[in-house]
Amino acid sequence: MAAYISRAAPRALNTAFRPIARSTFHHANPQRAATPMFRRFLATPAEEQPRLRLGSTAPNFKAKTTQGDIDFHEFIGDSWAILFSHPADFTPVCTTELGAFAKLKGEFEKRGVKMIGLSANDLNSHDRWISDINEISNTNLQFPIIADADRKIAYLYDMVDQQDLTNIDEKGIAFTIRAVYIIDPQKKIRLTMLYPASTGRNTAEVLRVIDSLQTGDKKGVTTPINWNVGEDVIVPPPVSTEDAKKKFGHVREVKPYLRFTNVGK
Predict the structure, then answer these.
(1) Which listed residue (13, 58, 82, 94) is catalytic?
(2) Same-domain check for residues 241 and 114
(3) Where, by residue number, is the active site (predicted)?
(4) Residues with Cβ < 8 Å from 176, sequence gap 6 or more?
(5) Are residues 99 and 168 in the same domain?
(6) What are 163-190's pLDDT values in tens digits?
(7) Quick one: pLDDT at residue 241?
(8) What is the largest CA-CA distance in the chain?
(9) pLDDT tens by residue, 59-91
(10) Range of the structural domain that residue 231 is part of
(11) For the chain, what is the domain count?
(12) Does the residue 131 lie in any domain?
């Protein structure tokens, strides 16, 4: 792969990167969506970076996947969803990750969560790679993987590491990082995790934070460090101890601002 951009690269990049069509990608800022892709990663002015803050609406898009064409918001429907990206097919860390996620399909389904992957290759490559994943991990991968060979969705979701903006492939396109977006049924981004390409993710942590988010939404509580389902939760500061006791029963007060209770599983 190229480690630098040659003098001839701008011409190639100008050809390779087209403005994102409004009909395909829906974004709150039309000017940002129309910015040529090569400028997005060569200049990367701050005002052109996506604003994917927690609580903001996950940008919608249409894409081809290993299970057919999708509209992302329609795919999510009334469920929770995890969108997670991978640098490339047939790479070692990505292969171990997808195998591990595939094995946890039942755990995600119990929580009402849909999984969808993204890798910067075409569908033909994805199909061949899935065979390897199933063989190596002894599993049956059933969630869709988005084909994002031109990195349009990767740039829409800012799945690119600044240090890799010059670590480009033969097309002159920056590689994607390992991003995780947890999105709720209202299409709001509730949690993000960003990993460098060199570091594999932790599936148990992804499940843990989903449990925390869903418990918080249902019970009106927050969760302490290293919390897992069934352990004590925290009463939020705006709730008085008296009201907390009425709602939860027993409340253990460590400090006036730190009170624990238990909401079960």
Answers:
(1) 94
(2) no
(3) 94 (cysteine sulfenic acid (-soh) intermediate)
(4) 85, 86, 87, 118, 119, 120, 148, 151, 154, 159, 160, 197
(5) yes
(6) 555 555 554 556 788 999 999 999 999 9
(7) 95
(8) 70
(9) 999 999 999 999 999 999 999 999 999 888 999
(10) 220-261
(11) 2
(12) yes
Tokens at 168, concatenated: 């480009």
Q: Which residues are CB-neighbours of 73 under 8 A, at least 6 positions away?
A: 58, 60, 187
Q: Is residue 243 part of a domain?
A: yes
In the numeric block, the tokens 């910067």 are attached to 120
Q: Are 3 and 167 in contact (CB under 8 A)?
A: yes
Q: What is the pTM of this model?
A: 0.77
Q: Residue 247: which CATH number?
A: 3.30.1020.10
Say yes or no: 64 and 151 in one domain: yes
Whether 21 sits among the annotated catalytic residues: the reply is no
| Residue whose token pair is 């604003």 | 51
